[in-house]
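Input for the complex:
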Amino acid sequence: MWAGLALACAAGAAGAEPVAPAREAELIGMVRQDCGSCHGLTLKGGLGPPLVAPALKDKRMELLKHVILWGRPGTPMPPWRSFLTEAEAEWIAVRLLKGFPDER
Amino acid sequence: MNARVMLAAAALLAAGCAQLGLRGTGDLGVIVERGAGRLQVVDTTRQARTGTVAGLGDLSHASVVYSRDGRYAYVFGRDGGLTKVDLLRMRIDRRIVQSGNSIGGAISQDGRLIAAANYEPGGVRVFDSDTLELLADIPATWGDGSQRAKVVGLEDAAGSRFAFSLFEAGEIWVADLSVPRAPKIQKFANVGRQPYDALITPDGRYYIAGLFGEDGLAMLDLWHPERGVRRVLDGYGRGEQPLPVYKMPHLEGWAMAGSLAFLPAIGRHEVLVVDTATWREAGRIPVAGQPVFVMAQPDGRQVWVNFAFPDAEKVQVIDAERRKVVQTLTPGRAVLHMEFTPRGEAVWISARDDDRVVVYDTASFERRAVLAADKPSGIFFSSRAHRIGF
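Predicted:
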């Protein structure tokens, strides 16, 4: 957890708006559990594609952020913008590209 | 010593006795602890845990089927793990990793075959239920034959057959494993876009796949496969803008009352009512969110519904006769599953984010017990051993 938080803080400083540490824990839980219902708890994929770092190596952060916020029409990927700010979507996208932190 | 400690001590003592003495398994079951890769073995008579079995891998979308004697639980893990767990000895009997990514499975009518539905590599693998030896590998190839589809909605049909759907291909296949090492496969193409899950009716006659890519269901009459797949509830929401879907509904649990069936509407805050005599829509019941499981009590009198994010803290109960919501419960955050005791006097509900399973009386809606569990997801009782489609 501490390693994850440290990583989060370092990356947060580089982003436009910071995400509060308590919210970071919620976002980690949300990605692991709710995104995990399609992409797998380990993010190795399910009905949705894998979201582990090697599987995303050709993807740009902006694309991931856009898909998180707006979904992918024609696929089951829904838009999450009602539940996430742009900064939060970016926070998730950045961490997915690096290898997403574990819960706890 | 407080009451909780005493209860825990009593449970331990009882667990010890259970291991030593003779007992049946009809009131046993398992709770999947999704993050921990562990099962809790539970006793629905005492409403308590009797033990745990660990080392089952990634259980993020785990499902369970039972041997016909109700002793062994076959656990299908997301990571392709297939584990045969002995409920009496509370330990792993056998375990294999049969694929890279699995969604669930089924057991044959005679109990001899276990079939696993795989996403990666897309297809079905069939195993000897005793030894877990691989008997048949059925790749879900489609298109020009170079692609493999993810397999969903794998169900047991009569006579050593399994029916399943191919997500990307929009096909339903029926595999006959009368000769297990030489499966015969009947394929039905163009059944509709993106079948995401399926069910088999309690009598084993109809196999019905839900379609994500369009409004409607694809139905195959297993008594008359020569008649092909037909569409039911075609375009039930056409013209309306569906809501985004934050969790795929599950079709297992086929809720029936008389000739009516209750199904989750996809992308809508509704439960669909279907007349099974005509397979036409007979109504819609507004509910608190997007339904995930719509499950009938064993007596068919009430139908219980849980919901996708962000309404997952609620459970609603529908009176099947009046077709109205009569109760809203809040068992905890992120309700993932519900399981009825064999005759339905109680329902066990998992609340993942509150790390607990809550047991309710289905008549009074009173809480009967709360069990601690680490991120609980599916709950599976051994009474599934004797039900078609479970």
